[in-house]
Amino acid sequence: MSRIPWVDKELCISCTLCVQAAPEVFRMSEKNVSQVYNPTGAPEGKIQLAIDGCPVSCIAWKDA
Ligand code: SF4
Asked: Which pTM value belongs to this model?
């Protein structure tokens, strides 16, 4: 079973850290919150670092 990252846009504070950590996966949307535009764009370990670095813990894994 594979999994993909998911962002709770209600909680995102637009710090851009996840985009800096894994720009292949995350980008800032037109509303200036993080969005997952390419969920399999980086290895899980790299995505996990972005998840761990989110200051408000609003990124989580979801089953693909
Ligand atoms: S690290 Fe978290 S709070 Fe910061 S932009 Fe990404 S999802 Fe939003």
From this structure: 0.96
